[in-house]
From TrEMBL:
One GO molecular-function entry: hexuronate transmembrane transporter activity
Record's subcellular location: Membrane
Annotated GO CC locations: membrane
InterPro entries attached to this UniProt entry: MFS, MFS_dom, MFS_Na/Anion_cotransporter, MFS_trans_sf, Sugar_P_transporter
Protein name, as recorded: MFS transporter
Length: 435
């Protein structure tokens, strides 16, 4: 079907993009303030890893709950609740006076931020035909990278000019500005008066899923479906790697290459700018394969296999002799992660009907967050051990090897559980199996 007149669906993507930008800006602030907070509160690497784990545990629980809630109340109200909670929590970091206090507010932040992706993926499933969903997801998901680019410039400047408390307050308040635009411009396609009939028809042009009803889908039903487990394992094995990039890369560059985190950090800006290219390019690539006649499931899996291979060179970071060699290798891996992310999120809307998408994304996101809880335990213990031995860089080198092969492992697990990624018919008596 030819492109329709009107492009209101891209306005929706713009809203999702800015929400995701704010989401990642707020969550990354603590990583950039880590050296200053370590000095003020005498944190060890293990202390910091526990604060990260508090966020991860709450984020995991929140994803599971928000996935269900958003499938029931819709993306609009789900997003409103989510961003109010996380923006308030981000600002209240400024009143923390102890490690426990930071842990508490990180947990509340994680709970609020967990609503972002279930709401965004559901919105994309509602507003885009399958052929455009990966690109739309890649565009809004690139907001994670823009947030990560803005943070290394914005946060050190606020820290130097005002202090760490103000860094939390200013960045946290941005979410309330976005909320105004979301309230004005977002409705589902059926309720949106700004949407033309031609574009409405285009959005539903390849809608071959089962007829949707208002009935909710139980977690028990979803857990009996192999496609759910494909998504769960893909997220569990790869999400923790991105969180490691967010929360530990600043201190890696500081400890290994003496990067001054009190100043705007060009190496971090380069890394996260590369991820923007990866996110949009990854979404485009599988869409390109589909337009060339490749079946949807094969296009997604081919693209994801390519991205899994592109992460492997990060294992060579241990041989970097200057910061820019390390930046190049890490940038490639981080870009490949975001390309992978754009496609793995889209597999959920490829395989599941719209009424179950947020629940599936929530379950898979919870699995990724559980990995995000477990991985920091290893990271903290490993880095403290190598630090005591006087070789902190050696600890990071081990972690980069783990990062390098995580995506290939994730791809193989997804292939085992859903080799053809068939659409799920939730009305059928038996779940779709493997052919």
């Amino acid at each position: 079907m030819n492109q329709p007149k009107g492009g209101y669906r891209w306005t929706i993507v713009a809203l999702l993009f800015f929400a995701t930008t704010i989401n990642y800006l707020d969550r990354q602030v603590i990583g950039l303030l880590k050296p200053a907070l370590e000095s003020e509160f005498s944190w060890t690497e293990t202390d910091y890893s526990r604060i990260v784990m508090a966020f991860s545990a709450s984020y995991a629980l929140g994803l599971l709950l928000f996935g269900r809630v958003i499938d029931k109340i819709g993306s609009k109200m789900g997003y409103i609740i989510s961003i109010i909670v996380w923006s308030i929590a981000a600002m209240l970091h400024a009143v923390a006076t102890s490690t426990i206090g930071f842990g508490v507010w990180r947990a509340v932040l994680g709970l609020g931020e967990s609503g972002n992706f279930p709401a965004a993926i559901k919105s994309v499933a509602e507003w885009f035909p399958k052929r455009e969903r990966a690109l739309a997801t890649g565009i809004f998901n690139s907001g994670a990278n823009i947030g990560a680019v803005v943070a290394p410039v914005m946060v050190p400047w606020i820290l130097g000019a005002y202090g760490w408390q103000e860094a939390f307050i200013i960045t946290g308040a941005i979410g309330f500005i976005w909320l105004i635009f979301w309230w004005i411009y977002y409705e589902s396609p059926a309720k949106q008066p700004r949407l033309g009939q031609e574009e409405y028809a285009y959005i539903h042009s390849d809608n071959d899923e089962e007829v949707t009803t208002g009935e909710s889908v139980s977690w028990g039903q979803l857990f009996r479906i192999r496609q759910t487990w494909a998504f769960i394992l893909g997220k569990f094995l790869t999400d923790p790697i991105w969180w490691f990039f967010l929360f530990w890369l600043p201190s890696y560059f500081a400890s290994t290459f003496n990067l001054d985190l009190k100043k705007p950090s060009l190496p971090l800006v380069v890394v996260y700018t590369a991820t923007t290219i990866g996110s949009i390019g990854g979404g485009y690539l599988s869409g390109y394969f589909i337009k060339r006649g490749m079946p949807i499931f094969r296009a997604r899996k081919t693209a994801m296999f390519i991205f899994a291979l592109l992460v492997i060179p990060i294992t060579l970071a241990q041989f970097a002799t200057n910061i820019w060699q390390a930046v190049a290798l890490i940038s490639l891996a981080a870009a490949a992660h975001q390309a992978w992310s754009a496609n793995i999120f889209t597999t959920a809307s490829d395989m599941f009907p719209k009424r179950a998408v947020s629940s599936v994304v929530g379950i898979g996101g919870m699995a990724g967050s559980v990995g995000g809880i477990l991985f920091p335990i290893l990271v903290g213990a490993l880095l403290d051990s190598y630090k005591e031995a006087g070789n902190l860089t050696g600890g990071y080198n081990v972690l980069f090897i783990i990062c390098g092969f995580a995506y290939l492992a994730g791809w193989l697990c997804m292939h085992f559980f859903a080799p053809r990624m068939e659409p799920v018919n939730l009305s059928a008596a038996e779940p779709v199996g493997v052919r």
